[in-house]
Amino acid sequence: MNSERKSGADTPVIELRKVNKYFGTHHVLKDVSLSVRQGEVVVIIGPSGSGKSTLCRTINRLETISSGEILIEGQPMPAEGKELAQVRSRIGMVFQSFNLFLHRTILDNVTMAPMDVLHIKRKDAEEEALKLLRQVGIEDQARKVPAQLSGGQQQRAAIARALAMHPKAILFDEPTSALDPEMIQEVLDVMTSLAKSGMTMVIVTHEMNFARNVADRIIFMNDGAILEEGAPDEFFAHPKTERAREFLASFR
Ligand code: ADP
Ligand code: MG
Question: If I label 1, which of 54, 108, 110, 213 is the partner at 20 to 30 A Cα–Cα?
Fold first, then answer.
C-alpha cells in the first residue's frame, strides 16, 4: 500500500477511489472512481442533478464524503486545520458565480490569498497579479471593483485569482453558465489557452464544442455515477449508452 502513496511522475494529481456521498438518505455519488494525471484536461458532463458539482466540491473537501478515498498527489486530504487549508489552496476552484470579494479591487482579489496563505510580499504578489491579469486580458481593470466589470471579465479575474496560488490543478464548475452569450467565448478562450499551457484541469460544462476541443477525456455522469468515460471524439461520435445519446441529442 505504501508504495502506492509515494508521489512520483505517475502519481495522479487527483484520485478518487470508490467515493460515495449521501445527503441524508439521498445517495448523490455512487462508487465514483476517477484519476486525473498531471497536465490532463478532464471534462465532466451530465444532466442537472447528476452530482457534478458535488463531485467537484468533494475534491476540495468543501463537502465531506461518506466512504471511499480522495488523494491529492497520492496523499489523503488532511482532515482539518492548516494542513487542509494548504492543500485546498493549491486546488483552484472557479465557480459559476465568480465568488469575487465585491468590495475589494480586482487586484486585491488576486493578491489576497497569495499574501495571506503563501506569505508572499505585497509588491511581489501585485507584480504577479498584474502579469496574470494581463494573461487573461484584463490588466486595465485591476483597480476596479467587480461590479464595474462585465461578467466575462469577472470570470477571467476569478481565473487569475486561482492561478495566483500556483495550483496543482483547477476545478471549473460551469464557469460560463451565468454569462451572457456574447461573453462565453472570451472565458472559454482563456481556459483553452490554460489547457494548452499544460494546466491540470477538471471542467464541468454544458459547452459541448468546447468540451470536444479541449478535453483529453470526457466523463459522463448520470444519477450520481460515472456512466461513460472516454476520448472526446469517441464519446461524441459513438456514445455507448442510451442515456448519453439522449443527453447529447438535447444539445442539437
Ligand atoms: P449537478 O451539479 O450535476 O447539477 P449536484 O451535485 O448539484 O448536481 O447535485 C446532486 C444531487 O445532490 C441533487 O439531487 C441535489 O439536489 C443534491 N444536493 C446537492 N447539494 C445538496 C445539499 N447541500 N443538500 C442536499 N442535497 C443536495
Ligand atoms: Mg452543478
Answer: 54
